[in-house]
Write a structure and sequence with these properties.
The protein has five helices and eleven strands; from the N terminus they run βαββββαβαβββββαα. The chain is of the alpha+beta class.
Amino acid sequence: MSKNFEIQELAIAITAKNLNPTVITPDFLKYTGIVPTDWELATEPVFNNVVVQIFYKSGVGIVAQPNNVTVVESIGAKQQAEIQIPKITHQLVEKLSQVEYQRVGINPRGFVVFNSDAEAYQYINGKLLVPGSWQEFEGAKVNAALQLSYPLKRGILNLSINQANVQFPDKVAAAILFSGNFNYSLSGNTAADKLQDLQQIITNWQVSVGTFQKLLVENFLTSSEAPKNISVFPPMAKN
C-alpha cells in the first residue's frame, strides 16, 4: 500500500426550501463577487429546469438542483490557504439569504493507492470483511463496498469505502476510495438562526475534515499503513 493518503475533493452541499437553481448563472456568480471576475469556465455550463452545472478551470464547480446546491473543489496538492470553497460558499449563501436553509453536508473524498488490483481487493475482502464462502459464487468473486454511518454529537458522519482505479498522467493505479459525508441539521428557531449556524459550520469545515482523517487513521489504516501526510488540515478540535 502507498503511504500517501490524499484528499482529492471537497464538497459542501446545502439543502434549502425555495431554492431556484436557474438564478445561478456565470454572470450572477461573477457580478455578485461570489467567484473572482478573472475565472475562466472549464466547460460550457449546463442549464435546464432540473440542474445547473458550472465548472471553472480553478477546479471549483457549482451544481444546483431544486432545493439543493453543491459547491465542489478539486484539492489535489493545494495548500489550505489556496482552497476556495469555504469563501465561495459563504458568499453564495449571503447572496441567496432569502431561501430557507435546512441542512448542510461537508463531504471530503480521498484515496489510498495500492500496488495492484489484487492488493486493493484484499484490503476490503480480507482486512475489512471476514473471509467466507459468500465472497465467491459460481467462480466469480464478489465486488464489495462498505457503507458506514456514525451518529456523532453534532451530526451524522457517513463513510463509503470502494475499490477504484485512479487515473494519473502516466498510469492507472489501483486504489481504495474513502468518501465522507457529514450531514448536519441546522440549529435555530428562525431562518436567521439557521443561516448563522450554516455559516458557522462552513467556517469550521477543517474540523469536519479533521474528524474524517482521524476516523481513517484510527480505524482503517493500521500503524504500518498510516500515511505520513494525512494531516493536510488541522485535526479535530477538542471540546
